């Protein structure tokens, strides 16, 4: 069974990825894409990278929730596609080393219905803050 936080975060992911694949096929026809379509394609590429997982290295469900949430909520839109795996590895280490309290909060609340669903939920606020903080550091270090 899937924890509620994962359902909240990844609920529309299958449809989003299907739409991405369709859009990707259309884009290969060589047509010029408007900025909004290109942004949707770029987010799709980022999500595909984010969902890749090394063989025989299963991830903790909380780590998966954090990564998918960051991708689906647009936090990675400024991270280059070829740096997504580096961002994810660094972010998950950051959560363990510097934001263990936020990681534990999500772990404790992952089975509650509103976790990462409502913007004013304390868990959501803490997770969003941690993602924003790390992403800012990551992008700053890459310049």
Plain-language structure description:
It is a single chain. With 143 residues, the chain is mostly helical. It has one domain (4-141): ATP synthase alpha/beta chain, C-terminal domain (Lysin). 66% of the residues lie in helices and 0% in strands. The chain contains 7 helices and no strands. α5 crosses α7 and α6 packs antiparallel against α7. The longest helix has 20 residues, at 122-141. 25% of the residues are buried. The mean pLDDT is 91.
Protein topology:
Elements: H1 4-10, H2 13-27, H3 35-51, H4 61-72, H5 84-97, H6 100-109, H7 122-141
Q: Whole-number radius of gyration? A: 16 Å
- The total of helices stands at 7
Number of domains: 1
What summary fits the major beta sheet?
none
Share of helix among residues? Answer: 55-70%
Rough outline: globular
In sequence order, what are the helices and strands, one letter per element? HHHHHHH
**CATH fold type:** Lysin
Number of distinct beta strands: 0
């Amino acid at each position: 069974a899937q924890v509620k936080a994962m359902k909240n975060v990844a609920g529309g992911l299958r449809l989003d990825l299907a739409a991405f694949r369709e859009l990707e096929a259309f884009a290969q026809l060589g047509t010029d894409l408007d900025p909004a379509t290109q942004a949707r394609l770029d987010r799709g590429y980022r999500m595909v990278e984010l969902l890749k997982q090394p063989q025989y290295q299963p991830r903790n469900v909380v780590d998966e929730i954090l990564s998918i949430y960051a991708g689906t909520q647009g936090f990675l839109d400024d991270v280059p596609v070829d740096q997504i795996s580096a961002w994810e590895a660094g972010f998950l280490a950051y959560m363990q080393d510097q934001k263990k309290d936020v990681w534990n909060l999500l772990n404790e609340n992952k089975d509650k219905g509103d976790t990462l669903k409502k913007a004013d939920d304390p868990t959501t606020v803490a997770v969003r803050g941690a993602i924003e903080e790390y992403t800012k550091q990551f992008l700053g270090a890459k310049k």
